[in-house]
Amino acid sequence: MSVGLSEKLRTVVEHCYEAEKMLQNSKNATDLPEIEEYLQELSVYFKEFGDHLFLAISAEGGGIFPKIKGNDFDNPGEKMLSPPSEIQEKLRETIKKVEKILRELAHVLEYPKIPEDIALVLEKGTKTLYKKINKLKSHIDAYD
Domain range holding 86? Predict the structure, then answer.
């Protein structure tokens, strides 16, 4: 596996853990139980996606990561305010950041000579995450 691809994949895995922490922080700061459930589900999926991708990359290239930022990722998050409109706005901001991360994940699939196992994990993970994010968006919009 090329050094460029290794670095790109390392960044993707770190972004998965970053998204997981952002979503977890948003979940902890909201007081809308219906939204909390979806934020939790999405957060867990990002963590699992990062873990699966890390394993696929390790199996393919073995030891290409000196250190992956995972659970120790420092992202204190913002406390959300109680009015529903402000909570919704903060959640929408978080979703925009997560969608940006997903777009970056999708670009990695365009990389030449990406191993098939890694490509499959990326494809399946990004499709599932887009579905979960759209479901969360519809629930947030329902509070308008």
Answer: 3-64+80-141
